[in-house]
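Write out the 3D structure for:
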Amino acid sequence: MTAMHRTWIVILAGLFVAAILGGCAKEPSEADVLTRGKELVEKGGCTSCHTPKVFTERGPVLDESRLFSGHPHDDTDIPRLDADQLKSEWVTFNFNQTCWVGPWGAAFAANLTPDMETGLGEWTVAMFIEAVRTGTHKQVAGAAHPMPWGWVGAAPDRDLKAMFVYLQSVEPVVNNVPPRVPIEGLLRED
């Protein structure tokens, strides 16, 4: 074997090893996944709709004790409509910004905390990804509503998994969000 052959063998062996090692990218750590999930949830504005507000001297702020708990079960502040409002394309919401009313009726922000009874506690990553991809949830199945499913649903699985991992790490809050109200149930009686 000539020196040139040995050189080529060493070069090819090196390229082979580099290709193998390059294809074996390290899995992100749990801490990295959690950090990425928190970043995505914060940048995505999830707290804006899924966290009730409290009124302070500075105006409404997030109620940190109910972070990601969704529309409060005892909040009956649901905007009512007249028949003329149904003819236009509009959206209105309550003080908490957890209840959105539009041509679909009233939709309520879901409890995203890991509470076992009223939140995502019994959910799996696959269930979460499916709900985000299809825009359905046990409380709003088949209903149109203001959740930005197109944007969130287009996220790669690894990002949705990271979001789920982060949401599973927050404090569980017991809050049974009411079911969707069809538009007929929101009409004002004059």
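The chain has one domain: 29-186.
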